[in-house]
Amino acid sequence: DRSWAETVASPVPASGIMQQVSETSAALAASALYWADRLYPYAGLGAARVDSEINRVWRDLHTASQHPLLVFRDAVTGP
């Protein structure tokens, strides 16, 4: 909400807000990928079918997680 309010108020948001948005986005992407990978095996063999919705979601999450804006800092810089 703060980042949206700042964007509406000023065309150039403060870097602190943008840093928080970036970190939160990366953390949410990491969490989504983590849980998708943990839950996927419980979906059964039907989930392995390319035309199944859960398979598409799993593939989309893995593809999106490779986007440069969501690359997790720990994976790049180490612990």
SSE layout:
Layout: H1 2-9, H2 15-39, H3 53-64, H4 73-77
Helix pairs in contact: 2-3
What can you tell me about this protein's structure?
With 79 residues, this protein is an all-alpha fold. Helices cover 63% and strands 0% of the residues. It has 4 helices and no strands. It has helices at 2-9, 15-39, 53-64, 73-77. Helix 2 (15-39) packs antiparallel against helix 3 (53-64). The longest helix has 25 residues, at 15-39. The protein is elongated, with a radius of gyration of 16 Å. Residues 75-79 have low confidence and may be disordered.
Short précis:
By secondary structure, the protein is mainly alpha-helical. It has four helices and no strands. The longest helix is centred in the middle third of the chain and has 25 residues, at 15-39.
Task: Give the low-confidence spans.
Answer: 75-79
| Major sheet characteristics | none
Task: Label the overall shape.
Answer: elongated
What's the helix count? 4
Q: Using DSSP, what is the number of strands?
A: 0
Series of secondary-structure elements, N-terminal to C-terminal = HHHH
> What percent strand?
under 5%
Which structural class do the helices and strands define?
mainly alpha
Tell me roughly what share of residues is in helical segments.
55-70%
CA gyration radius, whole angstroms: 16 Å
Distance between the termini: 30 Å
Residue-averaged pLDDT = 81
